[in-house]
Design brief:
Blueprint lengths: L4 E5 L4 H12 L3 E6 L14 E3 L5 H10 L2 E6 L6 H6 L1 H21 L4 E7 L22 H20 L2 E7 L1 E3 L17 H9 L6 E4 L11 E2 L1 E3 H16 L5 E5 L5 E2 H12 L5 E4 L8 E2 L4 H7 L8 H14 L7
Parallel strand pairs: 1-2, 1-4, 2-3, 4-5, 5-6, 6-11, 7-10, 8-13, 9-14
Antiparallel strand pairs: 9-12
Bound molecules: nicotinamide-adenine-dinucleotide (NAD).
The site of nicotinamide-adenine-dinucleotide has 28 residues, from α1, α4, β5 and β7.
Enzyme class: isomerase
Subunit structure: Homodimer.
EC number: 5.1.3.2
Length: 331
């Protein structure tokens, strides 16, 4: 058994796979547990892979017995916000009930450090200014509520069992491995930048933009894009703080700045030199005009130093991967 083993649940997915490479580069051994419902076997390249479900106690017992797990990074969830409105029980079952099973496994095996992928969707509404961690949490979708519920469960679990957790509330994860080995491959894809790139590659006839009459600088929604490598950096800083005996907590991970949908399209046109046809549609229910996070607390307390704050760097790394792997990961 090694003394550097970190369990990454959901490590075959977009953010989890980048996390594993980041861990590996810094001398850790990422152990991936993923059921591959949304992830890709080919994205697991940096340590052992166990195909299994966090909802299965026997699988967890086997993993926690076989490896000397120092901490858990939790990326395993369903993530499609509109689908969570249509089939909420699927989301509560996986994102909440299966997380409780994971926590029970950790308690059984005395593993007491967790980094949880939460979301800015726990805030729900915003007045458009950068949100800090004490912004009221009033999630407006089942997906957002699943993340908010787990955050509250973690507070209770910490006081009862001493399991310390850091909840990282991401804004919009984007970009790809700067070396071009890993990228974003959700099926179906629901995130803006890969959809724009697929349109640039001619894999889609046009890009649908939902709403151009929002009270923003050009009428389209403003979102805060954060590079996946910077997310990985924040996770490791949070984990190392727990490993050193530090406290848990809740942190926003955003750029503190945002880009409109039109701006992202224009920047992608510049980088790809493609025309990217656009079709404007009605607003989607549940979309809010502006979601921007203040990450001052993560910078101050975790020592987080994002390296890819520039939108061009985010789009370029994503474009680089999609150009190399236009059909995504092999199945
Ligand atoms: N992508 C974003 O912009 C974003 C923003 C905020 C929060 N998050 C959160 O970050 C995490 C990772 O997101 P992502 O974009 O990488 O998603 P993803 O779908 O690419 O990765 C999730 C992974 O978890 C696995 N998984 C799901 N349920 C599982 C289960 N029961 N047992 C084992 N494995 C399971 C999937 O197979 C997949 O590989 C999620 O928890 C998501 O809610 C993502």
């Amino acid at each position: 058994m090694a003394d550097n083993e970190i369990l990454v649940v959901g490590g075959a997915g977009y953010i989890g796979s980048h996390m594993c490479k980041y861990l590996w580069r810094r001398g850790y051994r990422p152990i991936v547990l993923d059921n591959l419902v949304c992830g890709h076997r080919a994205a697991v390249q940096w340590g052992p892979f166990i195909q299994g479900d966090i909802g299965d106690p026997e699988t967890l017992d086997r993993v926690f017995s076989e490896y000397d797990i120092k901490g858990v990074l939790h990326f395993a969830a369903y993530t499609c916000v509109p689908e969570s409105v249509d089939i909420p029980l699927k989301y509560y079952g996986n994102n909440v009930a299966n997380t409780i099973n994971l926590l029970q496994g950790m308690v059984r095996h005395g593993v007491n450090r967790l980094i949880f992928s939460s979301s800015c969707a726990t805030y729900g509404v915003s007045d458009g200014t950068p949100m800090s961690e004490d912004h009221v949490q009033h999630p407006i979708t089942p997906y957002g509520r699943t993340k908010w519920m787990v955050e509250q469960i973690l507070d209770d679990v910490e006081s009862a069992y001493g399991l310390r957790a850091v909840c990282l509330r991401y804004f919009n994860a984007a970009g790809a491995d700067p070396d071009g080995h890993l990228g974003e491959d959700h099926r179906p894809e629901t995130h803006l930048i890969p959809i724009i790139i697929k349109t640039a590659l001619g894999q889609r006839d046009f890009l649908s933009v939902y709403g151009d009459d929002y009270p923003t600088r050009d009428g389209t929604c403003v979102r805060d894009y954060i590079h996946v490598e910077d997310l990985a950096q924040a996770h490791l800083l949070a984990l190392e703080r727990l490993l050193a005996g530090g406290p848990g907590g809740k942190y926003n991970l955003g750029n503190g700045d945002g880009a409109t949908v039109r701006e992202v399209i224009e920047r992608t046109r510049g980088i790809t030199q493609a025309s990217i046809p656009v079709r404007f549609e009605e607003r989607r229910p549940g979309d809010v005009p502006v979601l921007i996070g203040s990450s001052e607390k993560a910078i101050r307390e975790l020592g987080w130093r994002p390296q890819y704050s520039d939108l061009d760097a985010i789009i370029e790394t994503a474009w680089n991967w999609h150009r190399r792997y236009p059909d995504g990961y092999p199945e």
